[in-house]
Amino acid sequence: MNNNQIRPQLSPQDAAAMLAQLQQQNPQAYARLQAMRPELMETGNEHLLNNALAASASGHGHGHGHTHSSSCSHSQAQMHFSQPVPEPPPKPDPTQMSIVQAVQYNEIERVKQLIESGQVDVNTPDQEGCYLLHWAAINNHIELIRYLIAKGATVDLIGGDLKSTPLHWACRQGCTEAFFLLVDNGAAIKSADVNGVQPIHIAAQYGQIKILAYLLGSGVDVDCVDERGLTPLMYSCIGPSSGYVPIPNSSHVCCTQFLLTFGADVNHQEPTRHYSALHFSINNQNPISFHSLLKHPQINIHVKNGDNFDPLIFARMRQNSDAVAQLERRIQSTKAHIKPVFLQRYLVNAGIRKWLTRFFMLFIMTLIGLSVNSYEHSYWLRILFPIVVIFLCSHLFSYYVLEAKSVDHFAFAYVISSSVLMYITYWIYLQEPKFTISDIIYHFSTVYGLYCVRCIKTLNPGFIKQQNMTLEGNSLTKEKICIAFARDPRWTLDHFCVTCLIRRPLRSKHCPVDGSCVAKFDHHCTWLNACIGGRNYFYFVRVLTFGTIALIIWMCKALHLIFDDFEQYSIKYLLTQIYDPWFIYMLMLTAFNAVWVTLMTSFHLINAVFLGVTLNERLTGFRYSYFRDENTGKRTNPFQRQKFKNFLETFGLFRLMSMCRYTRIDWSQVYDINQISGAKMN
Q1: Repeat ANK: residue ranges (predicted)?
Q2: How far apart are CA 548 and CA 561, in angstroms?
Q3: In terms of Cα–Cα distance, which of 608, 604, 682 is closest to 644?
């Protein structure tokens, strides 16, 4: 770079406009400029921006400085662009390139010419202290890296403003191939720059999960700190600088959950301002990290920073409304503030709150029916009394019991309460003095349906554990799984769960409610508050089928009873004078249940029998590669071919399956669609 050339003096607006034009006209050059000098994207650094633009105008197309932007804070201010600027200069003639330019543009023949002629030494830095291996690493030029190493380049050369190694540069930009090539040639994975920042910190901040998985699987401490006491978890909460652009096809994702699963200290505080990871996620407006931290069972939501601000107060100061709302809900759901104090001992227990929720639903449904059935009281009292009682009880329930998970508990409590009340009503109003076939079918369907509900709640739906993971016949630890995920380019985030640290089998999915991956995942049923997977789906279908039968029989007998008296009385007289209000109340409740249960049963039978897919695949099948033909790319369904087998498997008729010589597949051991023929059930 010619330091004597005249550099244009640009205003911040003009400089920002030039950056915008560069990004539009040449995204690759913009990404490299940003990778070399990320501080240029922050406000207050106009003089650095002018220098970088002048360097670009001189023909390099790349900045010479390098930083990892390891500062605790990143400017979130948006730039506004209004002025068109000239296009960036074209690529220089390869024969006229300097050695640095040749490496940056991957002109390997020019590099060989300069090195083998003795004009350049591979271990000589440029004028800003950067080495050829740094430029090759950050641009992911694999053949150049091999050539430079073969010519004697030292893999752990320290260069740039932060005295970092080529491994640091590769980590920041997500150059996994360059990273592993350097590691295989002896690069130190625990090397630190001038600020004590290691590759694991950079990988965590910039979301390079494959690199992070390899580092953790290779034994790097998940809680290692830099010179300021920041851990990789804190860097992941800080996140990349504004406008960061990784190289194409890199596995760029928020790594907070991955670090937490690996055992990162969620409550660690850096020594200067005493910020925790939660404070960093709030300060940097990182909702993904914040949500992952808040779900952690050991998170301390009352920890205070050096200014004596807990996360809730800090979120209000930073005007982070989403964080404020979630923290307020979390604090309210802990029930640690309720009075009288002696009740805290019981109501902080999630199990007690769960059963209180179920009892509350049964109480409300019974109260409504009994109130309308009280003939001795006036009409208005029978209406107002349950409204007032429900209003008061709801306020008490909201204060003492209600939490985020209460919705699922309410839905399950409604199913059980309505089933019990309908069954009791059948015995009182609809049961024949002498048992008929319909009575026997109704009682069997109700009792067996409730038994299947119990099986769904108690049996394993197909949770996948690390100790069950094998690769080519060998059992895998989480460290080995992480290294295999990092090394194998065929393993994408579709094949790896960052929460469970397992290789995800075909048709499986992570259930966020249960916090585990489920083989042949169907859905998490709100009505039963249970996960439905490959090992309990047939119980779920039986619940729907027998529930539909019981509801239809109940409705048929009730309507038959009413229509028998229809010739003698008007419908209004029947509903208001002949039959109890309780019976009418239960008739409406049963009719409502019959509609949605029948529709749900039909939907699942079509999915499972005729299409052979799960509910998750029916709704999100476009995401999965096994629903696309490898040759044509058109949508296909590999599970639709054997409808009779699907029918037997859907209802759990496994002995008939074996008699018909159908193979039952263990979906927890199938990782490729081509394995289906050979993967039998244990």
Answers
A1: 128-160, 162-194, 195-227
A2: 20
A3: 608
Q: Residue 39: count other Cβ atoms within 10 Å of its Cβ.
A: 19
What is the widest separation between alpha-carbon atoms in the chain?
Answer: 113
Cis peptide leading into residue 246 (ω within 30°): no
Distances (CA, A) of 525 to 273, 363, 533: 44, 23, 10
Name residue, tokens 């194998």. Answer: 488
d(CA 628, CA 637): 8
Separation of alpha carbons 431 and 439, rounded Å: 7
Query: How many Å apart are CA 131 and CA 194, to the nearest integer?
Result: 17
Tokens representing 377?
């009281």
Give the residue among 454, 530, 505, 519 at the shortest CA–CA distance from 671.
Answer: 505
Task: Check if the beta carbon of residue 74 is closer than 8 Å to that of residue 284.
Answer: yes
Q: How far apart (Å, rounded) are the C-alpha atoms in residues 473 and 618? A: 32
pLDDT digit string, tens, across residues 83-104 = 343 455 577 788 888 888 899 8
Rounded CA separation 553/567 (Å): 23
Locate 214 and state its tokens: 């390899």
Residue 594 CA to residue 550 CA, distance in Å, equals 9
CA 530 to chain centre: 19
Q: How many CA atoms lie within 13 A of 408 on its CB side?
A: 13
Show the low-confidence residues of the chain (pLDDT under 70): 1-89, 249-251, 334-339, 341-342, 344-349, 373-377, 379, 382, 399-400, 404-406, 466-475, 565-578, 677-682
SS3 100: helix
pLDDT digits (tens, 9 = 90+) for 71-81: 333 333 333 33
Q: Which two tokens stand for residue 9?
A: 């003096």
In this predicted structure, what is the pLDDT of residue 11?
A: 53
CA dihedral (14, 20, 25, 30) positive or negative:
positive
Q: How far apart are CA 662 and CA 208, in angstroms?
A: 44
Q: Do the beta carbons of residue 187 and residue 155 sit within 8 Å?
A: yes
**Structure token pair of residue 444:** 């069997």
- The Cα–Cα gap between 54 and 7 comes to 6
Of 244, 226, 236, residue with least CA distance to 261: 236
How many CB atoms neighbour CB 325 within 10 A? 11
Hey, what amino acid is at 131?
Y
- DSSP-based three-state secondary structure for 255: coil
Q: Encoding tokens for residue 285? A: 């407006």
Instruction: Supply angle C-alpha 184, 187, 189, rounded to 5.
Output: 105
Residue 419 CB coordination number (10 Å):
18
The rounded distance, in Å, linking the Cα atoms of 213 and 180 is 12
Task: Please give the Cα distance from 392 to 390 (Å, whole number).
Answer: 6
In degrees and rounded to multiples of 5, residue 502 shows phi and psi of -135, 160
Conformational region of residue 434, where left means phi above 0, alpha means psi within -120 to 50, and beta covers everything else: beta
The answer to whether 244 touches 34, Cβ cutoff 8 Å, is: yes
Angle, CA of 118, 120 and 121, to the nearest 5°:
95
Specify burial of residue 560 (Cβ count, 10 A radius: 0-12, 13-18, 19+): exposed
Q: Are strands 470-471 and 474-475 parallel, antiparallel or unpaired?
A: antiparallel
Per residue, the 3-state secondary structure of 627-647, as one string, reads HECCCCCCECCCCCCCHHHHH
464: left (phi over 0), alpha (psi -120 to 50) or beta: beta
Residue 491: which of 471, 515, 462, 511 has the closest Cα? 471
Collapsing DSSP to helix, strand or coil, 463 comes out as: strand
Q: At which residue do the structure tokens 């979906």 appear? A: 667
pLDDT recorded at residue 80: 31
SS3 assignment for 486-553: HHCCCCCCCCEECCCCEECCCCCEEECCCCEEECCCCEEECCCCEEECCCCHHHHHHHHHHHHHHHHH
Instruction: For residue 525, list its beta bridge partners.
Output: 530
